[in-house]
Amino acid sequence: MSRGLYIGIQTAGTTSRMRCETLQRILPTMAWDAIDTDTAFANASRVWRSVGFRWKFGPMVAAVNQNVCEQIEGQRFDLIWVDKAIYLFPSTVRRLRDTCKTFVHFTPDTAFFGNRSRHFFRTAALFDLLVTTKSFELDQYDALVGSGRVMLVTQAYDTALHRVSDCKPVEKRRDAVFVGLCEPDRQRCVETLLDAGVPIRLGGRGWEKLLRRRGSDARLTFLGSRVFGLDYVRAIAEGSLGLGLLSKRFPELHTTRTLEIPACGTVVATERNVETTQIFSPNEALFFENYDDLACQVVNLLGAREKLGKLEHAGWKRVTTGGYSYDCVLTSVLDRAGFGQSL
What we know:
343 residues; Rossmann fold; Spore protein YkvP/CgeB glycosyl transferase-like domain-containing protein; 15 helices; alpha/beta; YkvP/CgeB_Glyco_trans-like; six-stranded parallel sheet
């Protein structure tokens, strides 16, 4: 039997863990091992976590590399899949390269904006295939390794988690929901909707200032800073509308929420751009131009249950039949890497 190795975060609820489990499911003919790169992070002090995350050195980063090198000692693999190699030293990546036939790197994040890593820049050429979800970074990838080894895919949802059956309520709340990191632009969106009278359930890190200022507003419900797994799915599934807000720290055009929200059976509200309009038609998502436009549409939509139901079903059907699950996306990656015949 052929052997595969997955290197990435294994913490429950993370998209990295979802990808690991998906690979094991769609490539059952391969015996899989996994190395958790999050163990060293969890065991490190707060200071060294920050140093490691920001500058990619220190005891935490060294521990990640030591763990990888120890676990591959004397091993051979047909496929090694590295999820976000930002902490791996060049010496470690070279050892991995020498240990496998096919070497794949995948990241759902930016590599040339946030998450920059000198280690990755020095080792990218050692991979057979580099997979990104960021179309705006293709030129940088091509300059680094050439276009022949770069693959662009969409973000994806997890069929084992993001689904309607387990969590859909009998009757949805007449509200909007957002779970994610607070950014100034996202805060403006939330406040614009609240000012328009839209009830909002909110979750994620960094919302303390907003909560201090607007915490007494009965229309605002805070779900907590950690809303993961089934809690995340329930929060989305209970709402009439999920806010698929994009980051403004870089030119993001779609995100995991873009697909997870309709997969959970809820209408996604998203900016109109070249990628979101390739995924959805206007009768499958709520497109908006600015937050005042969004607020006006949401107020009207929450009072139009029949229209809301049609949007909800059409968006769910588009995502679940359109090839946007991890099963479909990762199958296409495996096919490009030469493992399609094993599926």
